[in-house]
Amino acid sequence: MNCSALQHGGNLNAAVKSYGIPRSSWLDLSTGISPYVWPVPPIPQEIWQRLPEADGELEQAALHYYGSPALPIPGSQWAIQQLPPLFTPRRVWIARESYEEYRHRWQLSGHQVCYYDTLPDSESLRQSDVVIVINPSNPTATLYSPKTLLCLAQALECHQGWLIVDEAFMDATPTCSLTPHLQPSQPILVLRSIGKFFGLAGIRLGFVLGNINIRQQLLERLGPWAISHPTAWLGAQALRDCLWHQHQRLRLIKDAERLHNLLTRYIPAERFDITSLFVSAILPLDQCQFWFESLARQAVWIRRFPNWHRLRFGLPIPNRWEKLEAALSTLG
Ligand SMILES: Cc1ncc(COP(=O)(O)O)c(C=O)c1O
Question: Which of 82, 99, 149, 278 could bridge to 32 as Cys pair (CB 3.0-4.6 Å)?
Answer without folding.
Answer: 278
